[in-house]
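pasting for the record
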Amino acid sequence: MGAHDEQPTDRQLAGLMHADLLVIGSGIAGLTAALHAARSVDVLLVTKAELAEGSTRYAQGGIAGAVDPSDTVAEHEQDTLAAGAGLCDAEAVRVLCDEGPAAIAHLIDRGVAFDRAGVRESAGGLDVAGDLEPADGLGSGIGAGRSPYALGLEGAHSRPRILRAGGDATGRAIEEVLVDAVHDRATESSSSTTGGSLALREHMTLVDLLVDGGRVVGAELMAADGTRLAVRAPATLLATGGAGQLFSHTTNPAVSTGDGIAAAWRAGAAVEDLEFYQFHPTALAAPGSFLISEAVRGEGAVLRDEHGRRFLPALDPRAELAPRDVVARAIAQVMAAQDGRPVFLDATSIGADQLRERFPTIDAAVRGAGVDWGSEPVPVTPAAHYWMGGIRTDLDGRTTLPGLLAAGECARTGVHGANRLASNSLLEGAVFGARAGATAVEQVRATASAALPVAAAALPVAAAALPVTGTALPIAPRGAGCAASPYTALPAHHAPVDAAVPAGSDPRPGPSPAPGPGASERWTRAELQELLWSHAGLLRTGEQLDAAAAQLASWGDPDPASCTTVAELEDRNLLHLARLLIAHALARPGSVGAHHRLDDPRHLATQGPADNQGHAEARGRTDAHELVGAPTSALSADSEPAQEALAC
């Protein structure tokens, strides 16, 4: 790392620090925001692990954008809205797709070498002006003539528009370029006395946000050795990613424990759409749940049951390229009908050489698991992948708490609705990370006391001052599948600040995710993960969710004051988020997008008495379409096949 190794140690940081902007998280959103803001203000960027560790690094498929002249922003918008099942915020989608091409061009300008047509890996050093430059504004595609980039096709996209790097290592390529840029900016800052600056601190975990007079004024952090540190800042930006570690099977890295979402909720920020967790349809059915990109299906791979039969064409005309929620549920139901055994991804038609060339990372992982996928199918199963919900923000990253912004997977911007369109997540991080960074600069400049020192004793201690349960379900579920109940106003501290938050949902207290009286039962993370997987996974029922809520309420909350390890802080966050996810899922009895209720009243109303009593497999059904579209009783909450399917 060279000069980067000269950063101060965590123990030297003990005490109180100041910054204009505190950015927590180092994925594409956090790095983009920090780089943007550091041109104007003093930024402190902290991250729980190493700077390059996080979900961005593991993103395989690519980044979506209307970069080909034959493509349009309007078409990308339409595909995004369709995948979101009617619950996207149209204006947020417009911003994402309209500003996406420029965000991609900016990544290229920084040095991201996206694969060119006919060449898997570019030599780098791209001339942005000649290769990928906005033409006639952001809304008309990029460049003249045909795009020089190898654009891929993924599920629910109407045309190829996915830019990739290194075949199937897009996230890693982007992360490496942004990390290098951050290190370079930090080095420049150490020798410059003008303009903004950027300081880095790795292995610093968020404990809680510091709140003073209803405004976020920084955060309490903990180093790997248990040392606590308070950072005072007029603007704090959360970019902490998702919470795949809620589930026993996930494609997410170990650091994805929802720290930012949990801390924001405890501080009083509104959270929304937490019932919508996307399960990637095709993770390798082996320890580690290695993700097999949707791009493999875009290249022609198909899904088959254990008898070798394709089952998706009978369900959806888009077959293997249907939205992820459709494909994942179909796989789960077919697995249930075959006693929980995995389905198979058949990529043999692509050929071994092309698979090795196009998907080098996946090729190594699959072959490492003992599967020659050029000549035999790969066993796959769904796994928790991406949280559409999160901290409620407006189009510029503002949350409902003054002084707090959010971007990336931890933010609920409204672009994903009930189901994220493939390869829109990296784009969201780039577009809204830049917007949040710009907004943070505005907030810092508007805060007269930004650089004033504050005595450590004057800082509120978040862990002691904030109720451990936060505010239950501050935002109501929207659209299809919602319970019809009167709505009441939010508590005053949830009123939008700085700017209006996106319209489209009404505040509602809803069911409480709080622990029960005297809750003290000991529990482990593995128990929580298995509970969420079996009771709040791909297929859910009210009975399962009620049982999970009761179990979670009986478990004691870790005392943040006594937590001395990162794992203890993570467990606290996972428990709070598990309760919230269950509460949001219970508040939406109907199915929509990634939230699928087997006891959806609308679905049950269409079934006859016989359908609601017998199991599909007991009636001898073998047709794939019937299995995929089976009534709820075919995968009842207590049925052994259903439990095995969801535990695979």
